[in-house]
What does this fold into?
Amino acid sequence: MRILVVEDSPRLQRSISLALRKTGYSVDVASDGDEGLWQAESNEYDVIILDWMLPKRDGLELMKSLRAKGNKTHILMLTAKDAVEDRVAGLDNGADDYLVKPFAMPELLARVQSLCRRLYGVKNSCASIGGLEIDFASRSVRRRGVPVDLAAREYQLLEYLARRQGQVVSRADIEAHIYDNMVDPMSNVVDSAICILRKKIATGEDSEPLIHTRRGMGYILESKPKSSC
Amino acid sequence: MFSIRQQLTRHLFAVGTVLMGAALGAFYLVAKSELAESFDDLLRAKAYSVSSLTDQEDGKVAFDFSEDFFRYFDSESPFTCFQIWDAEGEKVFASRHYSAAELPKPNKGTASQPEFRNIHLPGGVHARVISFVFNPRAEEGREAGWDPDLIMQVSVAMTREEIDNFQASLFFVSVGCWIIFTGFLFFAARRVLRKGLSSLDQLGRQLARLDDKTLSARVVLDKQPRELTPIVDHLNELLARLEASFLRERRFNTAVAHELRTPLAELRSMAECAIEWPESREPTMDKEILDIALRMQSMMTRMLAISRGEMGNLATNLCAVEVSAQMEATWKQFVSRAEARKLKVHLNVEPSSVQVDPVFFQSILVNLFENAVDYAPVGSEILISGRRGDGSGYVLEFSNPAPMMSVQDASQIFDAFWRKEAARSDEHHSGLGLSLSRAFAIAMNWTLAVSLTDDGQIIFTLATKEG
It folds into this structure.
């Protein structure tokens, strides 16, 4: 999942980015409204964490610009403005969630995760595919009851595939949602990651393969592969 | 607590009732007196007719009472009777009615000044009697034998049942009118006062609806009487001031909350990350935490100073300071910053000695220089002048272009935490500098004011109160 953090306080920016990255999200940051708008329009994000009072262009204006252009990315407003009318204004103008500073980091992470679930229309916090069980809340994975140890980025990739279970997910989509701007588009980082993930979730020789390649299209996570038309 | 309306109703009712009672009483008494006078006139006329029909004939008394005369006397109501006595008191004639009754004889009454008195005729009939002595006139053509010493006494009585009844009716009608008027007055006074005081009621209702959420409302009366105009005008002025004060207070509370929320969020998120992911703890974190703590401490110190200044509790140590030297010395701190922003600064300060607290004065100058240097557009001109004012005071002016500044901004510029830029990322400016400078200026008996010219120049004026 790829998150954009638009926050003018460098310390908060660093803390939030660290927490999100440690939790497995890929994170881009912006320090003012203009930069935030440019980033949001240039990339595809799952969630934008947006401060209200920003230099150059305030968060509300940024959000209105995005919504006016049809951008449906989930936005969590993270602001010191705590008055009821401010919350109402934020939510009325397109915010999907509103969190007041100071905040508890676990709560911010839970809200981001909730917005991600809503993004993919998943209400259940668990997914089960061919003996593979993924708990989105605890970010743990088991195959036939055996815990699978995944790195943050690997888990993120698996979660992304699981949330779009049964759909073909292109490499570009994976790059856009799992990897930040630092990834070279020409690299085979996605293929390598998929390869490693396949090995890790295959607990034995007889394990049913769950991640299937659709040549020229991408990857699909499902229990019984369907032949492509 | 008394009610104006009830008090006015009571007073109006009491005054109206008394006045009406007095008027009706006077009317009754006058009418009664007039009736009595008319009655006496009638009685007198009858008595005179009796006396005029009593003649002298050859030194003897003769009575010329005809049947018509008696018919006149015998009319049904009021009944009239009379009796005539000679000088010795011997009854010489009595009318048919009440002939057995003994009418009182005159004591001193004469024809010109007869006596009147009230008596009871037999049967308890209330009557009025006129009595006088008279000298019967001589018969026509026989005046030669007229005895001027022949004295007769006459008393004529007339029943006064009719006049008594009429007077009683008049009394009851008067009392009835008074009662009806009193009742009418009671309702009329309430109605008139309700209508007359409706503007006051409306004012009261509108004021009762006011609270801290409806301070933008103003008192507007449908029909505003002249007497209430100054009250309404002053109330509306007060409301406007109260609204401005509440808005300032609300802005201040919001600003304080906001100013504290961001550093608190920074501290909390940094601590939570350090606990959760200690391996990712940055080496500069402790320094950053100290910076945040110092920033909050500075904010608190400034707020306390502003608060003390507002309460007039800032202690000053006034002494003479050479203002141009102080300005030159302070300006040196900002030369490099001004050059970096390509600002053209004109410093023209007349040498003079002013009474200031050196620490406060320095703090104000630093704040004004800093604002000018940091917020004037790049490459613009800053004019700083100092001169003796028209009085004995000294005036310092800091002027620079402020194209983004509005009149509303200027009106809020001394509010604590006010900043043109809503974002709080600039840690060098807390939004407390100008509030604090004004507090320092007031403590030194100086003034610090701001004005915005039509061509977008913002001018801060620091002056002694005499200037």
User: Anything to note?
Assistant: Residues 20 and 27 of chain A are 7 Å apart (CA to CA). The first strand of chain A starts at residue 2 and ends at 6.
